[in-house]
Amino acid sequence: MAFNLLLRVHVLLGVLAPEVWTHTTAADFITLDCVPALSLARIYLDAKHFLDKHVRFSAVDQYGRVLEINEALAVQCGYTISTDFRGNIEFRASLISCYSQIVDDKNFTITVQIDVSTTPDMREVSSYVRALSCSYFPWSPREILCETNYMEVSVRREIPGIKDYIQDQPDDWTDVLPEAASVAASIWQVVFHLPSAKRAMLVSEAQNAGYGINTTDSRILLRAPFNASEARETNISGVTFSVVRSSTFYKQRWMILLVDTAVACPVDGIEYINNTIIWSIPKSITPLQAGARYFNDSRVVMGVNFQELTSTDISKRQYNLSDDGKVIAVQIPIGDEGGYFKSHVTKGEYGTTYSINVFFEHQWNDNRWGATKHTIIKEMTTPFKHHPLIITNNTIPSKKLFNVTIGTFLQDTKLVNLTIGSEILTVTDANEQGYNISEMKHPNGSTSYTVTVPFDDPNVKKKHDTGVNRTYTLSITYKFQVIPQNQTFTATAIISCPLPDAVLPDAIGYCDNDHLYLTVTRGNIDEDWIPYISNIQLTMPSQSSGYTLQDNGTSFRVKVPRFSSLVSYESLRSSDLMITLPLDMKDSDGLTKRSFSISCSYSSQDLIACLPNGTVVVTAVKLAGMPDMDPSQFVLRDKNCRPTAATEERATFIFNVDTCGTIRKFDQMAMIYENDVLYFRPGMANPAYQLKCSCWYTINETIVFQYGFENNSAPTIQPGFGPLALVMRVCKDWTYSDFYENTEYPIARYLKDPLYLEVELLYSEDPEIELFLENCWSTASSDPSSSPQWDVVINSCENTKDTHETIFHPVTDNLRIKFSNHVKRFEVKMFTFMHDTNALLGQVYFHCSVVICDSRDRTSDKHCARKCIPDKQRFGRSAEFHYLHGHVSSGAILLVADKTVQDERVTKYKAD
Ligand SMILES: *[C@@H]1O[C@H](CO)[C@@H](O)[C@H](O)[C@H]1NC(C)=O
Ligand SMILES: *[C@@H]1O[C@H](CO)[C@@H](O)[C@H](O)[C@H]1NC(C)=O
Ligand SMILES: *[C@@H]1O[C@H](CO)[C@@H](O)[C@H](O)[C@H]1NC(C)=O
Ligand SMILES: *[C@@H]1O[C@H](CO)[C@@H](O)[C@H](O)[C@H]1NC(C)=O
Ligand SMILES: *[C@@H]1O[C@H](CO)[C@@H](O)[C@H](O)[C@H]1NC(C)=O
Ligand SMILES: *[C@@H]1O[C@H](CO)[C@@H](O)[C@H](O)[C@H]1NC(C)=O
Ligand SMILES: *[C@@H]1O[C@H](CO)[C@@H](O)[C@H](O)[C@H]1NC(C)=O
Ligand SMILES: *[C@@H]1O[C@H](CO)[C@@H](O)[C@H](O)[C@H]1NC(C)=O
Q1: What is the pLDDT of residues 654-670, one digit of tens each?
Q2: Strand partners, 490
Q3: How far is the CA of 214 from the centre of ligand 1 (A)?
Q4: What is this structure's pTM?
Q5: Is 426 near ligand 5, meaning CB less than 6 Å away?
Q6: Which ligand is nearest to the CA of 275?
């Protein structure tokens, strides 16, 4: 009930002129009619105009006073206001309602003022006054109307009306009747018969208690609320009635006239079974038939929407009226045309109710009361019934178009919003965005909605399954609204459709000296895949964990340094190291969808540096497949030698060739230092990991042999190469403390001047190697193999065949000479070569072949004996080399002809 509870009395001035305040458009939406069969007048306000308006009804009495109708006044005075599901408002008034103008109990005029406002506080009201005249005649001696909000009884009277006697004074008749005596002040009284007692009230008291009492020309009437304080619930043949038993009487001089104004109306008796409404009405309503010995039905009719149904109508509509003698049962099929379905939302669920407005009229005669007309009006509404929604998937994969239908709904339910994927849209917005939303009306009046969404819409989720298969998933949450109450509810449709149209991401990679690169070209399924390297999520901008990520939308490139915790190392063959950069693409659930890797083989030579001074820098990396390995626990052959630096992935050692258990070996062309990086598992004697590393020191550009590692299962790194150099200097005097600089060559000398020569092995700081002169000779050109030659040292021995013999000089450590083992000295006299009989004036050069030996080893190898061993061959004696060969030459020494050129030694020696 939507009407105002304001109680205000407007004093209407002037003559009633119904159209004075009217708003011409609204007037068209107010209709009036009489329902004589039910002694009711009706005013109908069409929802088309009044749906979202605030409406107030007031009664206008015969003097033009306007009385606003609130709920209590409606019950007391015989008004009913109801709203149907569409928002139409119906106002009903009993023909004998309070302010009805009644002529001869035949002609009833009801005047109502309707105030309409757009605001709840009823400002800026438009008012419409409507007067409706209805005729009703004849009245039954007793008429009972069970309206939806009140019970009304009117009884023919043969006594004067109330207003004629209101001034009467009490007198001595009051003693006659106890009830009358207790209310002696008034002659008009109502006595309520309660089970335990009687309660008498004056008319004014009864009206204050909510009853309506009045008289018309020929009738007396009583109106009571269903829950009046004197009403009692009584079970009559299984149906609960609200019963008010009352007698209304007055005293007229010497007579007390009494009228029975009992009223009884059912409050229940309606059941909803098997899609049928069953309404049971007892035939014999005992409180209304007190004292009667018999009664007989004179008329039983029913109607819908205040229209009486003929028996043809009843069977056509498949109603059923059954009478078992005690109870009349009316069966109404749910869904009958006279009623209507209404949508509701309960606990978020969509459902419907069915409502129908039915009346039942029963007339009977009994021997005590004569004819009674008993009319019941019922607005029946079935309980909420869940209405399942059906989602139909009409998707056509070949068109790549989702087509989803949801239904069915009553017309009072509208689709207002949709959430497609994660986007919330109104229907208008959704249509504008190309989601085609259509409303389909079915013949039975219900509707359903169809939405079409293309597969490639951004709000469609695409999920990769396997291979080229992927699943498109459309999730739509529909939001519906039930009007006019505006309750909302949602329904969700999730439609998936598989299609084999996936393009997987692909990757290419490459490496350069310092970095590994992987470029991943995205496919069409991986937009939410995230790249990971070893469980580290790659993000933009790149983080400090060492990678560089570049993303141009369609592809991204990761760049990782060769030495990084993100890569793994693996020994490929003996001398190569495989470095692998793995990359996983994981989906949003963390599942690895695709893995890529780039592996590059690096020469392990890059992992060792052999410095000229004999310092070795080795980097040993942890190998894939040995996850428990801890590089900080790596050691060298001498287990006391630990890494200078270590990370989780690698360890770096810096050590000198004469420390840490380094082994020295000789090749014909190189001197080799070897060590191993070892890893021992705790408590184990054998290494779990062995990385061989070696440094090859060669003299000049001499070719180096490859070291044979093939049989060695332990990982190795290719040897590093370091320089060795030999130098032959000419010193200024026998102290060997000062020598000629490179720029001073050629050095000028007179014949027979002593020449102090020194050969030194440069760079090496290994105190355990020793340089020996093997053969030294002199030539006239810088080419050591040119002729003529003159021997100076032969097989490590001084050339003593000559009178001008070669003299070895000892070497001692001093400031300049750090390792005396690395130096040899000898002295010769300046000479010249003869050609034919002519002395060759000009330059001479000295050359030496040298060996570098392990000085600790010289006893076991005579090649390296300090002493001169004449006539011994140095080559080919042993399969294993313990020495290194080298050659060295001096700069040019110029003979100056200041002295006699002839020299016997020189003449004796001739070029060959
Ligand atoms: C009683 O009825 C008279 C005449 O119909 C009417 O004028 C008066 O307002 C009514 N009084 C009440 C209290 O209903
Ligand atoms: C009832 O009264 C109204 C106004 O007094 C009048 O217009 C109408 O004709 C009357 N109708 C009957 C049936 O008397
Ligand atoms: C409902 O209908 C079914 C079949 O039409 C019937 O068997 C059943 O008894 C009915 N139930 C009631 C309570 O009438
Ligand atoms: C959606 O499917 C229904 C049922 O197959 C069809 O009637 C309707 O035309 C389709 N809508 C579109 C837009 O394809
Ligand atoms: C529908 O969506 C619009 C825009 O998102 C929002 O403003 C509105 O409140 C929603 N309506 C309902 C009934 O939820
Ligand atoms: C793709 O899906 C089809 C149909 O569901 C299936 O037969 C096929 O084996 C799938 N292909 C792969 C690579 O999983
Ligand atoms: C329902 O919504 C309409 C328009 O959105 C509004 O005018 C009306 O007052 C609302 N009704 C209720 C009962 O909230
Ligand atoms: C929807 O229909 C398509 C096409 O018939 C079908 O492939 C898909 O499996 C259906 N999806 C669901 C969830 O029923």
Answers
A1: 888 888 988 887 776 77
A2: 479
A3: 6
A4: 0.60
A5: yes
A6: 3
